[in-house]
Amino acid sequence: MAQVLDIDRWNLECEFNNTDHRTDLNGVDRLIVRRGQPFTISLYLRSGSFQPGTSSLDCAAETGPQPSEQYGTRASFGLSPSIDTSRWSAAVTSPPGDMVALSVCSSPNAPIGRYTLTLGRSARIEFILLFNPWCSGDAVYMDSEQKLAEYVLSQDGLVFQGSYKHPIATPWNFGQFEGGILDICLRILDTNPKYLRNPGKDCSGRRNPIYVSRLLSAMINCNDDKGVLLGKWSDGFEGGVSPMFWRGSVEILRNWDTQACQPVRYGQCWVFAAVACSVSRALGIPCRVVTNFLSAHDTNNNLVIERYINEKGELIRSKEMIWNYHCWVESWMTRPDLKPEFNGWQASDPTPQEKSEGVYCCGPIPVRAIKEGELMSKYDASFVFAEVNADVITFMKKKDGSTSKVTTTTFVGQKISTKSVGSDNREDITHLYKYPEGSDEEREAFKKADHQNKLVQEQQQGGGLHIAIKVTSDMKKGCDFDVFAVVTNNTNTDKKCRLLFGSCAMSYNGVMGANCGFKDLLNVELAPGGERRVPLKLNYSKYGGLLTEDNLIRLATLLMDYSTGESFLAVRNIVLDNPEIKVRILGEPKENRKLAAEISLQNPLPEPLESCCFSIEGANLTGGRVISERLGCTVGPGEDAKVKIYFTPTHSGLRKLIVDFDSNKLCHVKGYRNVIIGK
After folding, report:
1. Are 647 and 616 in contact (CB under 8 A)?
2. How many CA atoms lie within 13 A of 631 on its CB side?
3. CB 517 within 8 A of CB 503
4. Domain pair 3-130 / 157-448, same fold
5. Is the N-terminal amide bond of 360 cis, ω within 30° of 0?
6. Which of these is catalytic: 202, 349, 380, 660?
7. Burial of 28 per CB tally in 10 Å (0-12, 13-18, 19+)
8. Domain 3-130 = CATH 2.60.40.10
9. Is 157-448 a CATH 3.90.550.10 domain?
């Protein structure tokens, strides 16, 4: 007769298990393990000793408020001779005695979340189970230690902003292992409407990373639920802070948690994406933030962005916009619901733009499906396809109410970017989303997408007249500089044209602000083969007070050919550089040793800066908080703002110290310094 093990007490061996499961950065005070990988518990028996073949132990693992074998949220199993990593199993791995090492393994497709493990009659053990990208049986398995270090374990990174001609790397503290963050991520799952309606079914769904990533794309925004962030793109940021204020996800997630799940105010696309990346990495899904420059927002699903300008070349606002850039996330997983070639990176977008199945969420959609024009694939393929591939057709609305088509050279989906693995370089991943512009494969993808009116094929450059905008390389905020409209006559006849050249402040999502400078030349004459460069001076005195925090100016030049009546439009968005923040680390960087960062910034503006403040944060550098230092004085033009801020690193390794400078005239300038912390 089998002898039931009588357990007196146990040791969860958290330090050993968490380190083995790569969860030790969450701390080692409780058991956090990954699915499909064994962990060890030391059991001290009350009486008798373990005897192979005769001793037995009934085990049950349960998650969620309604554990059920039918839903896969409860598993019952006994002792086996050895561990089976394909299912829930348990085996004793030590010699017979009154203290035994019990090895337990979860199924590689068990739902993630909080678990209770019951052993026999008396032992109830609590632990957290996460996705396991190191396990080949897990749907999020990734076969590269370097990529896993970047996309799961790295607590900081870069998000690309600026323009496609001038991408700017902005540092971000993902902080997924900072104190309390994992619990907040699990709370996000437990706050979603599907859980509130049917917790048993929702917890069962958490076995599937497709389900979880779609859930996160809905829950990072608060449009339909008690989600994390409220988006705002216009009319100031009263009652909250500018999205530019944030340096990382930790403060946002903690604010949401401590404020009883009230949305944090405010987010824009890079904030939504970066927070989604933090939560995904915390739960064990490999994830990265992606930036698409010149990103189309197609509202009517026809894969065409129809833009209207007035007779001055100024954009007339409409629902369909081209964002200067747009950020979303990619998560790594298999797609058993689709074709095998659609395994790998899946795009999902937590920024609330359009509803999907009645909810503001988007994805996950295989990046490969976008490239191939497979728009029947789940989820929201046509919306993401349009973001990187939509045609742009521009019409001029005249005063008499008539419209005429304008030849433009706008291509959406440029320089799709993410941070490189293991370095701070920009990796261009455009080729993963689309075939080269104008190639046969691109044509085929379009035919498959039932869409053949690609503007590229219509580009005859209007009978040989060509218009372009050229800029200088040195465009710094605070300076005066010239930009140029360049008109070329490639015909064999004289041309007489009207040229309008204008500039206006702009938000990154395409919303136009006030005029920063305008020129109207009624008689531009060009001989055959001739070229004319027309300068437009941009003065800080004019643009300085109009700029948004995005530092963007839209340049547009409209050329009208008197002889044919045709119009040609060239548009270019320029981003003005903020000054560089210089960071010097004083002292030898060691674990648990106080360090000082000497931080400085030169005022580039022709006016003084007041209310100057430097803030720093960094995963495992600043104790999961933001440290700020205010300057007590005004900083004059050309003068340096300078502070010393102290911090104490808690873990060794390569870390990013993220710095933010804010003042009355120069807002949320970002910088960072990589620091190697010694043991």
Report:
1. yes
2. 21
3. yes
4. no
5. no
6. 349
7. middle
8. yes
9. no
Indicate the pLDDT class of residue 98, thresholds 50, 70 and 90.
confident
Tell me if residue 368 falls in helix, strand or coil: helix
Residue range 463-575 in CATH 2.60.40.10: yes
Active-site residue, selected from the candidate residues 59, 105, 269, 277: 269
- Band the pLDDT of 298: cuts 50, 70, 90: confident
Buried/exposed 70-98: b ≥16 CB within 10 Å, e otherwise: ebbbbbebebeeebebebbbbbbeeeeee
From the number of C-beta atoms within 10 Å of its C-beta (0-12, 13-18, 19+), residue 52 rates as exposed
| 425: its two tokens | 């370089």
Phi, psi dihedral angles at 435 (to 5 degrees) = -75, 160
CATH architecture label of 581-677: Sandwich (2.60)
Residue type, 156: D
pLDDT tens digits along 166-224: 999 999 999 999 999 999 999 999 999 999 999 999 999 999 999 999 999 999 999 99
Give yes or no for residue 347 having a pLDDT over 80.
Answer: yes
CB 342 within 8 A of CB 428: no
Per-residue pLDDT tens over the stretch 588-598 = 999 999 999 99
What whole-number distance in Å separates Cα of residue 81 and Cα of residue 453? 65
Alpha-carbon gap, residue 530 to 565, rounded angstroms: 20
**How far from 244 is each of 157, 233, 349, 655, CA to CA, in Å?**
16, 11, 19, 22
Are 46 and 10 a contacting pair, CB within 8 Å?
Answer: no
Give the domain ranges of the chain: 3-130, 157-448, 463-575, 581-677
Dist. CA 335–CA 378, nearest whole Å: 10
Task: Please state, in angstroms and rounded to a whole number, the distance separating the CA atoms of residues 63 and 43.
Answer: 22
pLDDT for 467 equals 94
466 given a catalytic annotation: no
Distance CA 486, CA 467 (A): 6
502 beta partners: 518, 556
Q: Is the pLDDT of residue 457 over 60?
A: no
Closest to 428 measured CA to CA, from 331, 328, 295, 292:
292
CA dist., res. 615 & res. 250, Å (int): 14
Active-site residue 633, yes or no?
no
The confidence score (pLDDT) of residue 473 equals: 83
In the set 326, 362, 380, 391, the catalytic residue is 326
Q: Is the pLDDT of residue 461 over 60?
A: no
> Of 283, 215, 218, 274, whose CA–CA distance to 248 is shortest?
274
Q: Cα-flanking dihedrals φ and ψ of residue 335, to 5°? A: -125, 75
Active site (annotated) includes residue 440: no
| Residue 632, amino acid | G
Residues 225-244: tens digit of each pLDDT? 999 999 999 888 999 999 99
By the 8 A CB rule, do 430 and 416 touch?
yes
- 472-493 residue pLDDT tens: 988 999 999 999 999 999 999 9
Task: Give residue 440's pLDDT band: very low, low, confident or very high (50, 70, 90).
Answer: confident
| pTM flag (> 0.70) | yes
The Cβ of residue 678 has, within 10 Å, a number of other Cβ atoms equal to 11
Provide the mean pLDDT of the chain. 93
